[in-house]
Design a protein that fits this description.
It is built from 7 helices and no strands. The chain is mainly alpha-helical. The longest helix has 14 residues. The radius of gyration is 13 Å and the shape is globular.
């Protein structure tokens, strides 16, 4: 059975970046993008949904933090390490009205 995944929009990718950053324990953007060598203004525009990140930049995040493009672009948590997926769901639960769209079609098999 195929799972329906969220269509990628810049604002949803941005929300996933915010959730990921918080779940990994980075309270501010600077700590997060500095760990990967990404630029401040570009990263800020990605989180805000004002710009769509290029795949090569997202791959850098994936390599550094064990993320997947399926999660970042499509909202599929199932390929992430279980502990990270749970942490992301917990962060989303703190502000469901803000993150509901980014997590609309998450995998229900990931238990908290």
């Amino acid at each position: 059975m195929k799972r329906k995944l969220n269509i990628t929009r810049p604002e949803n990718v941005g929300k996933r970046l915010v959730l990921t950053r918080l779940a990994l324990g980075f309270e501010n953007q600077k700590e997060f993008y500095a760990a990967t060598g990404l630029g401040a203004s570009a990263y800020s525009m990605w989180e805000s949904g004002d710009n769509f990140p290029r795949v090569e930049h997202m791959m850098r995040l994936c390599q550094e933090f064990k993320l997947t493009l399926d999660w970042l672009y499509r909202g599929d948590l199932s390929s992430l390490p279980h502990s990270l997926a749970v942490a992301i769901k917990n962060e989303a639960a703190k502000k469901p009205e803000r993150f509901a769209e980014a997590l609309r079609f998450i995998d229900d098999e990931i238990q908290t």
